[in-house]
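Supplementary Text 2. Reproducibility record for the structural model of the 564-residue chain.

All settings were left at their defaults, and a single model was retained for analysis rather than an ensemble. We include the record here because the model underlies the residue-level annotations in Supplementary Table 4.
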Amino acid sequence: MTTQPYRPFPPPARAPSLLALKATAFGHTLRHGPKWGYAFLVVLAVALVSAEVYGTWRALQFLGRFGSIGTNVFARVLEIGLITLSSGVTFSATTTAISTLYLSDDLNFLLTQPIPTRRVFALKVFETFLNTALVPLFLMLPLLATIGVFFGAPLWAYPVMLVAAVLTFAAPVGLGALLAVGLMRVAPVGRVREVSTALGVLFSAGLVYAIRALRPEVLVEKVQDPAQFEALMQNFSSPSSPFLPPAWASQGIWQAAQGQLAWPLLPLVLLSAGLLLAATALATRAYQEGWARALDSSTPRLDPRPRRASAAERLANRFGIGGSLAYKDLRLTLRDPTQWSQLLVVVALAGVYLVSVRSVPIPIPQFRGILGYVQLAFQGFIIAGVAVRLAFPALSVEGRAYWLLRTGPITARQIVVSKFLGVLPVTLILGLVMGLVSARSMNLGPTLLLLSGLVSVSNAFVITALGVGLGAAAPKFDADNPAEIGVSPGGLAFMGLSLAYSVLALLLLARPVAGSVLRPDLFPGYSALSTPEGILGLIGLSVATVLCTLGALRWGWTRLDRLE
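Retained model, structure tokens:
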């Protein structure tokens, strides 16, 4: 018997693409996922896009009646919107870059393979972009397409507008990646994420200050004086933040829609490319070393000394297993800067929102009452934005430690309810503060003040339950990092359902609100709520709150039980 000599396999002609491998894994996930869930997500996305396109088109038609001044006002609003979205991306870019670039589970495999470091780094930067900027970019695309169609833009303008929108969010992501690499190189081990959180707060505060410097309330303040209206429109239509990258993108998008290339696109391209290239150049030298430091930074320091339960822990234990689990989640949140930094987002959102509401003078009581009630839907969207970071990934962040919970005498129902109780105080306080303070600052009547509190409580309960329930129904225990959980198909569906429920809550009480606002002489005080429409509206809101809260939680723990 003769043996054949060993012949090694020929090396591949080219290294496999990491992005192609990720796309293949994502395709497998879609094929094995629930088809009805994806169909529902598509229907929800079509409905939201249709509403955005319709609203944008009507706004352009209305402002177009004032000629070029009116359309330029829309350009200014576009600038404000880009600055607002960029502020949110900037806040989370650095902390997300830290967790994606250095704390992802697949790095243990990727960085030990014969793969150039820059390719791994580029893949992780792309994942950071998706985790932080995918939703804002999705919101921008229908708006840009509508603007292009309205002005009859040439075909080449649409790719230009798309590139401008991508670069608007690529700049803060590139800055976050650069800061992440630098911090992991020089910051003290164990304090990297604290420092990155502080930098994110500072950069975001600067952009929020830029939003307030635009003073959008001036338009409402002076619009009632016909003598000042034209001068105000001319002043408001001119760009006021020429040194901010979102303002460059706004000018480039607006000029491209009208068939012209604007020079601000050049510094936007140079800035985004420069930040990404600088981060890549630094990562070539320091990425693997920073990853090794991150392993030391993410290793907890264990204290073997026995400690007695604190007063707060003893109080939580009185609520049974659910209270103990909720207190455990609270302690873990306070230990991890990437988690407690989300509370800073809550404070920042509430502060900017309340300052903006107080700055808008509305002298007509009827219009002030209607606007004060409609803005509760926007408050629901803010609560959903917080819940997608806290409630939706609440179960998925357990990761491989989930088996510890299920091997004990703990049911899926207790786990889901404990996650709900742990997040509810944050969303409930946020909703009540925004609802009641905004109603008082707008000097709304007693009926609207009471309904603002009731709708805020309903939004907090239902949106938190939807987040925990949907997150438990389709958990991602194998997520490479927590930042990618919120941008999954389930996270996007959760945002759409939350917005839909916020609108539903307003519709249930629309009739008594209309009577109280439009006819205060017939419905003084709380009398609008004693009418048949008011009683039915309150009953409907109560029933919807209870059914949606219990239904979402029950669906979550039922689906979680089936995973066993």
